[in-house]
Amino acid sequence: MSSVSPNVYQLVFLGPPGCGKGTQASYLKKELNYRHIATGDLLRHEIANKTPLGLNVQSIMAEGRLVSDEIVIELLENHCDLAKGPYLFDGFPRTEVQAKMLQEKIIKDAAVLAIEFKIDTNILIERIVNRRTCSQCGTIYNIKFKPSKNQDKCDQCQSLLVQREDDKEDVVTKRIQVYNENMGPVLSYYKNLGLLRQVDASLLGDTVFESIKQMFE
Ligand code: AP5
Questions:
Q1: Which parts of the chain register pLDDT below 70?
Q2: Which residues form the pocket of ligand 1, taking CB atoms under 6 Å from any ligand atom?
Q3: Alpha-carbon torsion angle 41, 48, 78, 89, nearest 10
Q4: Would you tell me which of 27, 51, 72, 114 could form a disulfide with 12, CB atoms 3.0–4.6 Å apart?
């Protein structure tokens, strides 16, 4: 992939489960040095470590529902420092309250672009049920579209690939429903500020990445 000049935009990735936010975030992190912050990953880390917060949110996530705004906002504030470099927010905001909080408390006067990943719902389920993730480094695979070379081992670190707890078809359907119920006001929020861009997320991963980079130019 070709290199592009560094940019100063904070990025917000908005899109339904399985649209490719995490996949594109890994490209931006590698090529443009973005700091990738994914609230889903932060929450799964809390669950894996059996913290009080993790125990509190475990069943909510397993059912595909949203964790409360208070919990995710606090988690984000504890893990985010814009002085360290440009951030890419993945899976946040998911409600209008979160969008306003992100702007007022974290992004403030910094330049920001919100990118909506547009994709048909019927593609999502196939992507998600076939997703596998490295249990150590988090690299994302797909047994149909992007398999690892070594069956159930990560190409990067050889650790075991696992399926996420909430990637079963019935939970995925619920997650998509929750997304559709909540995202209207979030998209309107960014649209009204003139900050919303869209990308066709049904295309090949490299093509999606090129489209995103063009938004900076
Ligand atoms: P979270 O972890 O944020 O999950 P999500 O938004 O549902 O998104 P995913 O991680 O499932 O998908 P993705 O878009 O990153 O797709 P990926 O790149 O992996 O949230 C999980 C839960 O946490 C929520 O349900 C909620 O409970 C809680 N939560 C998190 N944040 C919260 C918040 N702010 N407020 C409240 N609750 C919150 O790709 C998917 C698959 O497709 C992969 O296998 C990949 O290889 C493949 N793929 C990707 N791109 C392509 C392509 N272009 N072509 C073909 N295949 C592709």
A1: 1-7
A2: 15, 17-23, 38-40, 43, 60-61, 64-67, 72, 91-92, 94, 98, 127-128, 131, 140-142, 145-146, 166, 175, 204-205, 208
A3: 0
A4: 114
